[in-house]
Amino acid sequence: MSDTDGVLVIGACQAGIQLACSLREYGYPDPITVVGAERHAPYQRPPLSKAVLHGETTPGALALRSEAFYADHGIALALGERITRVDRSTGVAHALSGRAFAFGRLALAVGARPRRLPVPGADLGGVLYLRDADDALALKHALANAGHVVVIGGGFIGLEVAASARRLGHRVTVALLEDRLLGRAVGEATSAFFHGAHTRRGVQVHLGVQPVQFYGDDRGNVRGVELSDGRHITADLVVVGIGAVPRTELAEQLGLDISNGIVVDAHGVTSDGTTVAAGDCVACPPPVDLPDLPARIRFESVNTAIEQAKVAAATIAGRPVPYRVVPWFWSDQFNLKLQVAGLSSGHDRYVLRGDPEMEKFAVLYYAGERLIAGDFVNRPADFLAVKAALAGGRTISPAAATDVAVPLKKLVLT
Ligand SMILES: Cc1cc2nc3c(=O)[nH]c(=O)nc-3n(C[C@H](O)[C@H](O)[C@H](O)COP(=O)(O)OP(=O)(O)OC[C@H]3O[C@@H](n4cnc5c(N)ncnc54)[C@H](O)[C@@H]3O)c2cc1C
After folding, report:
1. Which structural domain range is residue 127 located in?
2. Which segments of the protein form a coiled coil according to its record (predicted)?
């Protein structure tokens, strides 16, 4: 193993590709190889649950970069290659196909896989998950023949699929264990809004229930779901969106610390002191100073994957910068653009700006006088103002924020 063997990035999606690109931006001179298990050219995942299902685009049109870009920047892509074993002593990673990849430095950007539902009948035809382009194509195909779509889970993926299926004219039911939609990501007022918005558009929502079993027909295709409250719902397509589990098997093999993700420090370095990691697979120190946050956080968002990848690349390139950013993400459901900035979990009060009835409002979260986060529905300018305020450690007077006639960016206190 020698540094001149360069960097091997395992995982060729949002984090892995950003890591490779940032290495070149930071002037890293040695070879860079990105190896990915999927056969598709590295692509954006967010449209999979929206535009791909609506038929407005195809996975082939979602490439992150062109082939020419990779060639011009000396980034070698090895696609359709799943790494199954990494030998750090020899500096070689082995793929299922038998191919071997030498490396001087290793970066893990292996992402996450959908959490599986361990109930009888979960292996019936028509019980689907959505993580990658092939899943999206299978789901699109299944939607073409479905009448009643049942979505298990009330997080982003579940609700985006529900919205897409409804837009396509299907009967849609969402069933979730939690007592509110989007419970892990937004505050109660925003959850209540999305419950109302989905219901108004004809989605049936059942809270506080989970599937006990799926039952099927003679051909092994799903025909219904039995829920924990005893209710039976017919279904000819079930989409399970109950969260994602970080892919940690290579990290385990390497003896790296794992705690709901591959543990990294603020510079993206794992517990062996040299391997870096970024994206959905990573558990990192919180990137903001707020009371009562856990020691490590795992985010699943495009922005986090990009920012963590930049940090890991800077570490390898010898220009270390810590991961200090305001986390943010978005979700598109029907004509509703939700944007979330910051972490609201430690808030002690919130203010509402605008009118949820008009489907255009913001919720700003405060810890004492300090602005710590916001949820925004169809208010992109407010989102940008709050994101900038949080990044600059500034606040907005809660009393003034309720006046929608005044742009939020004018209310940021210095
Ligand atoms: C349907 C969907 C919609 C989404 N919508 C939004 C949205 O609207 N907004 C938002 O902010 N975020 C959204 N996200 C989340 C966002 O896409 C992810 O957070 C982001 O893709 C994470 O990037 P990543 O590179 O860390 O992981 P991944 O995207 O999971 O990529 C990891 C890659 O590594 C590969 N891999 C894993 N193990 C190996 C191995 N052993 N050998 C080789 N390759 C391997 C995998 O095949 C995969 O291609 C969405 C996600 C999904 C699935």
Report:
1. 116-242
2. none
